Amino acid sequence: MVLLSLFDGLVVFLCVMVVLEGDRSGTAGRIAFDDTHDLRYGPGYAQVMFVQWQEGGKRAIVWPKERADGKFVLPAMAKK
Question: What gap in Å lies between CA 12 and CA 17, rounded to an integer?
């Protein structure tokens, strides 16, 4: 059991080292992490978008503001 725990810890450590070793180019853009293991974000890096399916089957980008083509609508099931 202790050996398995050590192995698991080594696997996690190696995964972290691979992620931190450098930048990657992905389908969403450049992917890189900072010293605290957070994903770098902003111009030149992969950009995340929040998308919502709305009435009539319309897909709306609701965040970030610079790319938004719609506003967030609270779903009916979330209303009291």
Answer: 9
